[in-house]
Design brief:
The complex is a heterodimer of chains A (209) and B (206). With 209 residues, chain A is of the alpha/beta class. Chain A has 7 helices and 4 strands, in the order ααβαβαβαβαα. Chain B has a domain at 9-133: 2-Layer Sandwich (Beta Polymerase, domain 2), CATH 3.30.460.80. The longest helix of chain B is centred in the middle third of the chain and has 12 residues, at 111-122. Classes of the chains: A alpha/beta (209), B alpha/beta (206).
């Protein structure tokens, strides 16, 4: 348990987990109970910035209904939230705010990047937009779409629930905080550049670097 | 179909003569080109003259054309609310000379933020503006002026550097006394923020 920093200690997939508790039948039952409780009562922190926020509201409303997944209690205070849903494009000016909200959420916390803008920057590949919030915070589930259909967002939430069900108390590093490193970045700079590389149509539509 | 010429053009030419270099009618809008040094006088006259009364400043913006030899243009879009009339006033700024023009905040208070946006995006300074600083980009943005044609689409710095500078910003440092104009809120802000406001501190990179 503790702080690990991807910007300085990023080593890709490791495979080994450190555990202070030897897994046994009791821990698997505890795991099941904890994970079932957590996944079915996720309180979202709706970080809605743009159009995806409207679609998120539609998903929460009566026709599609997030209440059946235990998510009807939106928590606009990050201190009481479990899952950070970034719905909408994020300009660089908003980046420190987003990071601060994420840091204010206590563990256990997960992040859903809703929509193409939050996942990769979408069509806004320019001087002012963050090219995917995974350059700022660790993301668990990406939901593609512009905006994603409510069914798409619900699929992403169900994926997150399955991910949570697969977690284990024996995994000590699972709930580590990954703060911004002293260098000022969450990820190493070459990784940020790699994630922000233009792709798809953006590659042909550039008149400059 | 002949587009109607705004009735303000003739009185303008009579009052200012050579300062009005030319006028154009485009898509139903009348555009008047004036010389940069007389622009403020022209706009003041347009606002106050009895037959003109362009009391609403719809927009202040700027244009840089793809042809690099054409000068930058500053555009004032005016409207007379009583007469329901529009007029567009433009002045040309040579790129080789100083990109400066007189501010119209003394005529229309709304020009405050509009001119800040033009400064932020084009680098055109407005002499006499009470608080000329960036408005869309953060105050310490160092890459330049984004809507200029020589500004690359994705900015000058690498994505990593942009992210680093963005994360280093302090969002709470960006309030000015003018923006915190809600008097009640002034008493509720924390003491150190009140101090910062009193010192006139602007945003800074930590």
């Amino acid at each position: 348990m503790g702080l690990t920093n991807p910007a300085t200690e990023y080593s890709g997939d490791d495979g080994t987990t450190v555990s202070s508790v030897s897994p046994n039948w009791v821990t698997t039952r505890l795991d099941f109970l904890t994970n079932w409780a957590r996944s079915n009562s996720l309180w979202p922190m709706p970080f809605g910035t743009a159009c995806c926020a409207i679609e998120f509201m539609a998903t929460a409303a009566s026709r599609f209904d997030l209440a059946r997944f235990g998510m009807e209690r939106m928590s606009f205070s990050p201190r009481q939230a479990d899952v950070f849903i970034c719905a909408g494009r994020v300009p660089f000016k908003l980046a420190p705010v987003l990071r601060r909200i994420w840091d204010q959420m206590p563990q256990p916390k997960w992040a859903i990047s809703m929509g193409a803008c939050a996942s990769t920057g979408n069509i806004f590949d320019n001087y002012s937009m963050v090219q995917g919030i995974d350059t700022l915070i660790p993301v668990d589930v990406y939901v593609p779409g512009c905006p994603p259909r409510p069914e798409g967002l619900i699929y992403g939430i169900r994926l997150l629930q399955k991910k949570i069900m697969g977690e284990s108390l024996a995994d000590d590093m699972l709930r580590d905080e990954h703060p911004v490193s002293p260098s000022g970045l969450y990820l190493p700079p070459d990784r940020v550049d790699e994630l922000s590389e233009p792709f798809g149509n953006s590659v042909h539509q550039t008149r400059s670097t | 179909m002949t587009a109607p010429l705004s009735p303000s053009v003739e009185p303008l030419r009579q009052t200012f003569g050579d300062a009005v270099t030319r006028h154009v009618v485009s898509c139903g809008d009348t555009i008047v080109y004036v010389e940069r040094d007389r622009a403020h006088d022209v706009l003041a006259w347009l606002k106050t003259a009895p037959g003109q009364t362009f009391d609403f400043l719809t927009d202040v913006t700027a244009v840089e054309y793809r042809d690099p030899e054409r000068p930058l243009e500053v555009v004032w879009q005016l409207r007379s609310l009583a007469r329901k009339a529009d007029l567009r006033v433009k002045t040309e700024l040579e790129k080789t000379g100083p990109l400066e023009v007189r501010s119209v905040t003394d005529l229309w208070r709304g020009a405050d933020w509009l001119e800040r946006e033009v400064y932020d995006m084009f680098g055109i300074t407005f002499a006499g503006h009470p608080d000329l600083r960036r408005i869309l980009m953060w105050e310490t943005y160092a890459e330049g002026h984004p809507l200029r044609k020589d500004f690359p689409l994705r900015g000058h710095f690498s994505r990593a550097e942009q992210t680093r500078q963005a994360l280093a910003a302090n969002p709470e440092a960006h309030y000015s006394m003018e923006e915190l104009s809600i008097a009640e809120a002034y008493d509720e802000i924390p003491a150190d923020m009140r101090e910062r406001l009193a010192r006139g501190e602007r945003g800074f990179l930590r």
